[in-house]
């Protein structure tokens, strides 16, 4: 009992919360970046611009099929070769953003494909250009369909930040390891704290996703997108 | 890059083998456990549904690394000695089974409820109807997403590097520090991962198109 | 079919680009670390944060503390003057070499042994601490020295990128070596029974045995591990400045004070041999 109390002393809790803060910071930054870039890349991949779309599509496929740890190594050890020296926090943000952008791009592409062709044809026949139709008719519907899938992707992102401990990102996982590394009796309490903290963040995001799903009334017709969700969830 | 393959080819291939082995073992068990919980999620008994729901939500919302480290660090301390490879594989099974359960459940629910009702009307029990009528149809729907789960499994198996599981990523780390050429080594490792995942990923997309 | 060929073509172009990129990186660096550091009044050190006595993260104030940290601070003052600042970046045995060569850090002071292989990649200062490799086992373990590990193929734990894992292959070729990502992971693995012994330099092991009375260092040292400060190739002036600073710190008696501060509680530590 004493060891449990010792494990959850204010000093340790504060140290864990400092780690949790880094986890949240890295997650939020990379969520924003990957949302923006993911949508742009997804559209580029969908619209079939000669060469560009093929290249973007291929790069997305490569990134999607590599383990995230490898991408973290590439950003941390590789980026300095082109003159940018990120610290572990930036390296993680960039790695996460690159990886998740590719994931989101795939969701966006599938989301656009799931909109019936008639929508585009109808919009074009009322005199809209291709880009106008995409911007005002297709995308708003597609994004509505995609939101649950994108939120689940972001849940994965939060969990995946733990992998960046390998480059000594001072996140929740790393700080917990430091604490139980210095006192073995704290091992189980630390794992419990880790599980609870990650669960709270991720489960509230997943409740948000269910709420949005319900609110947007996409629960029924998003069958096709749900398949995409399954395919991107890690 | 070529020199890495020449000098450390054997170690890399061994790592590739371990990654594949661990992924296949994890896929088989995760498929069994995942399908089990997927069925529990749709049975009439509310208590069983809650158990399934709790299991799935817990393992979906905790990082794989935390689960794996738990089995590597805590279980041997108090229960039984297990190696890094085994603890990594157990972590992968538990984590992936939660996702597979969700995939299979959506497959089961996409089968027309009339199928179940018809089967029950013909005198089959719930389990018989599930086994012979609903599941075979559900699996047809879920093959592409399951393929994608397998790709994720291969990628996620890289957590074995944290617990000295001798997988491809672990061998990559060891070779990178031995040869002191980290970028070239990790490029080699990347190519090997792509050999496993990329063809599968294209095949699954082809299947998706064909089934749609 | 056409699509497949174009995909393969793309892949090859991409590979070529990446390979040429990584080839560029191996060219010698043009920068002058000593001049840059004098301008910014800061030296960026790569240090350990998981190694008791040398560099350990203090949970209470989130600062790294240890012998190497204090020595690095003292040397920074010698090189840059009174207002020189030392910046510390946490490294592991796995990340320190790439980080130095990429320029994220100016120098490594992270329990790094001077070896001929490493000297091909980086320049070393002269040794600032003489360690030797040893093994840490649970009290009452049948393993008394490194030879015992060879008898029945025991599992030895080490850290990725440390040279102790290479040495152990020479002294106990039958032992199976597991390499973990850092020392706190390796120690946790030893306590979990993932291996029968943990091997690394005695200084690090002493730090572990202070915190964990159930474990002890046995058999004495079986290699010589002089720790050096590593700087990037082509930074000869920076290395000379390091050597001068080290000499001054030693002559002023500051070195021995730091040694006493960190190692006076350690049982079995050879003070007379380590003093400068």
From TrEMBL, chain A:
Keywords, comma-separated and alphabetical: Amino-acid transport, Cell membrane, Membrane, Transmembrane, Transmembrane helix, Transport
CDD domains listed in its UniProt record: TM_PBP2
GO terms under cellular component: ATP-binding cassette (ABC) transporter complex
PROSITE patterns: ABC_TM1
Single Gene Ontology MF annotation: transmembrane transporter activity
One Pfam family per UniProt: BPD_transp_1
Membrane topology: Multi-pass membrane protein
Listed InterPro entries: AA_ABC_transptr_permease_3TM, ArtM/GltK/GlnP/TcyL/YhdX-like, MetI-like, MetI-like_sf
Residue ranges annotated for the ABC transmembrane type-1 domain, each copy included: 20-209
Protein's cellular compartments: Cell membrane
Membrane-spanning parts: 20-44, 51-77, 89-112, 133-155, 190-212
Family, as annotated: Belongs to the binding-protein-dependent transport system permease family.
Name this protein carries in UniProt: Polar amino acid ABC transporter inner membrane subunit
Classification of source organism: Bacteria, Bacillati, Bacillota, Bacilli, Lactobacillales
TrEMBL record, chain B:
Principal location class: membrane
CDD domains named among the record's database cross-references: TM_PBP2
Family annotation (InterPro entries): AA_ABC_transptr_permease_3TM (IPR010065), ArtM/GltK/GlnP/TcyL/YhdX-like (IPR043429), MetI-like (IPR000515), MetI-like_sf (IPR035906)
Any one Gene Ontology BP term: amino acid transport
Domain annotation ABC transmembrane type-1: ranges: 16-204
A GO CC annotation given for this chain: ATP-binding cassette (ABC) transporter complex
Pfam families per the UniProt record, alphabetical: BPD_transp_1
Molecular function (Gene Ontology), one example: transmembrane transporter activity
Chain ranges passing through the membrane: 12-40, 61-79, 85-104, 159-177, 183-203
Localisation per UniProt entry: Cell membrane
Keywords: Amino-acid transport, Cell membrane, Membrane, Transmembrane, Transmembrane helix, Transport
Topology in the lipid bilayer: Multi-pass membrane protein
Family, per entry: Belongs to the binding-protein-dependent transport system permease family.
Protein name per the record: Polar amino acid ABC transporter inner membrane subunit
Taxonomic path: Bacteria, Bacillati, Bacillota, Bacilli, Lactobacillales
TrEMBL record, chain C:
Domain of life from the UniProt record: Bacteria
Record keywords: Signal, Transport
Keyword Metal-binding: no
Domain Solute-binding protein family 3/N-terminal per the UniProt entry, residue ranges: 42-266
MF-aspect GO terms: ligand-gated monoatomic ion channel activity
Segment forming the signal sequence: 1-25
Pfam family, one: SBP_bac_3
Name assigned to this protein: Glutamine ABC transporter substrate-binding protein
Organism: Lentilactobacillus kefiri
């Amino acid at each position: 009992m004493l060891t449990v109390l010792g494990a959850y002393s204010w000093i340790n809790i504060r140290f864990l919360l400092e780690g949790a803060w880094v986890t949240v910071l890295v997650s939020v930054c990379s969520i924003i970046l990957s949302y923006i870039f993911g949508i742009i890349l997804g559209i580029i991949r969908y619209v079939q611009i000669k060469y560009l779309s093929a290249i973007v599509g291929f790069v997305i496929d490569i990134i999607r099929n590599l383990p995230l740890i490898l991408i973290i190594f590439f950003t941390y050890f590789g980026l300095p070769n082109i003159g940018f020296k990120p610290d572990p926090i930036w390296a993680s943000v960039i790695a996460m953003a690159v990886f998740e952008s590719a994931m989101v791009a795939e969701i966006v592409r599938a989301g656009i494909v799931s909109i019936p062709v008639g929508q585009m044809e109808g919009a074009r026949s009322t005199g809209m250009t291709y880009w106008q139709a995409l911007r005002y008719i297709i995308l708003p519907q597609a994004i509505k369909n995609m939101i649950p899938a994108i939120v689940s992707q972001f849940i994965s992102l939060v969990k995946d930040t733990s992998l960046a401990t390998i480059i000594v990102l001072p996140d929740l996982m790393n700080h917990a390891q430091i604490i139980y590394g210095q006192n073995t009796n704290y091992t189980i309490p630390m794992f419990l704290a880790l599980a609870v903290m990650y669960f709270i963040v991720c489960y509230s995001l997943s409740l948000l996703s269910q709420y949005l799903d319900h609110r947007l009334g996409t629960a029924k017709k998003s069958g096709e997108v749900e398949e995409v969700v399954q395919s991107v969830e890690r | 890059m070529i020199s890495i393959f020449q000098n450390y080819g054997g170690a890399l291939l061994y790592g590739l083998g371990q990654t594949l082995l661990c992924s296949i073992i994890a896929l088989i068990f995760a498929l069994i456990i995942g399908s089990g919980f997927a069925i529990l999620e749709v049975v009439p008994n509310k208590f069983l549904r809650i158990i399934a729901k709790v299991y799935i939500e817990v393992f979906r919302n905790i990082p794989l690394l935390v689960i794996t480290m738990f089995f590597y660090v805590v279980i041997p301390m108090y229960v039984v000695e297990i190696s890094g490879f085994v603890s990594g594989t157990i972590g992968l099974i538990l984590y992936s089974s939660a996702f597979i359960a969700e995939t299979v459940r959506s497959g089961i629910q996409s089968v027309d409820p009339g199928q179940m009702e018809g089967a029950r009307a013909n005198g089959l029990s719930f389990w018989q109807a599930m086994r012979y009528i609903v599941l075979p149809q559900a699996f047809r729907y879920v093959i592409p997403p399951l393929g994608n789960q397998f790709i994720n499994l291969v990628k996620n198996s890289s957590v074995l590097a944290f617990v000295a599981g001798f997988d491809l990523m672990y061998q990559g780390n060891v070779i990178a520090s031995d040869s002191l050429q980290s970028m070239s080594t990790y490029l080699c490792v990347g190519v090997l991962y792509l050999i496993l995942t990329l063809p599968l990923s294209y095949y699954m997309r082809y299947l998706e198109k064909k089934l749609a | 079919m056409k699509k497949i060929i174009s995909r393969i073509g793309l892949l090859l172009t991409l590979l070529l680009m990446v390979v040429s990129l990584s080839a560029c990186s191996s060219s010698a660096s043009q920068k002058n670390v000593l001049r840059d550091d004098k301008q910014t009044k800061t030296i960026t050190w790569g240090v350990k944060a998981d190694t008791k006595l040398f560099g350990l993260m203090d949970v209470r104030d989130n600062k790294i503390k240890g012998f190497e940290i204090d020595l690095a601070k003292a040397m920074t003052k010698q090189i840059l003057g009174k207002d020189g600042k030392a910046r510390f970046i946490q490294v592991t045995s796995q990340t320190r070499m790439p980080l130095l060569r990429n320029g994220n850090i100016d120098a490594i002071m992270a329990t790094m042994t001077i070896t001929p292989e490493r000297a091909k990649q980086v320049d070393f200062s002269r040794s600032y601490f003489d360690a030797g490799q040893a093994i840490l086992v649970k009290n009452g373990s049948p393993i008394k020295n490194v030879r015992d590990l060879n008898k029945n193929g025991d599992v030895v734990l080490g850290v990725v990128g440390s040279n102790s894992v290479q040495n152990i292959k020479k002294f106990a070729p039958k032992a199976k070596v597991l390499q973990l990502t850092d020392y706190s992971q390796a120690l946790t693995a030893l306590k979990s029974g993932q291996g029968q012994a943990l091997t690394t330099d005695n200084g690090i092991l002493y730090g572990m045995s202070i915190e964990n009375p159930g474990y002890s260092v046995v058999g004495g040292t079986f290699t010589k591990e002089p720790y050096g400060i590593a700087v990037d190739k082509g930074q000869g002036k920076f290395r000379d400045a390091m050597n001068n600073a080290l000499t001054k710190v030693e002559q002023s008696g500051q070195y021995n004070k730091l040694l006493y501060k960190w190692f006076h509680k350690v049982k079995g530590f050879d003070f007379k041999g380590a003093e400068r």
